[in-house]
Amino acid sequence: MNKTLITSVIFAMLILLIVSPLAALASLMIVLLVSATFWFIKNLLQTIISGNVQSTEEGE
């Protein structure tokens, strides 16, 4: 569950960076948004389907 929560927070921060008025690298950020969207959806579906998410901490 921690991995899904961290992914959600990173995804929200990325969207805030893209819509900011001072986004000088907007085209690069859009490419990053597309890859982050797939990453977010993959982790979300993994949580919904299996209920077992890899921990972000080592040793577990």
Task: Describe the structure concisely.
The protein has 2 helices and no strands. It has helices at 2-18, 26-50.
Can you give a write-up of this model?
It is a single chain. The chain has 60 residues and is mainly alpha-helical. Helices cover 70% and strands 0% of the residues. The chain contains two helices and no strands. The chain has helices at 2-18, 26-50. The chain is elongated.
Topology (SSEs and partners):
Layout: H1 2-18, H2 26-50
Helix pairs in contact: 1-2
Gyration radius, in Å: 14 Å
> Distance N terminus to C terminus?
13 Å
Number of strands: 0
Class from helix and strand fractions:
mainly alpha
Name the overall outline.
elongated
Number of helices: 2
Outline the biggest β-sheet. none
Name the average pLDDT.
75
Helix/strand order, N-terminal first:
HH
Total domain units: 1
Helix content: over 70%
Q: Give the amount of beta strand, in percent.
A: under 5%
Which residues sit in consecutive blocks of at least 5 with pLDDT less than 50?
A: none
Question: Can you give keywords for this protein?
Answer:
transmembrane, single chain, elongated, 60 residues, membrane, transmembrane helix, mainly alpha
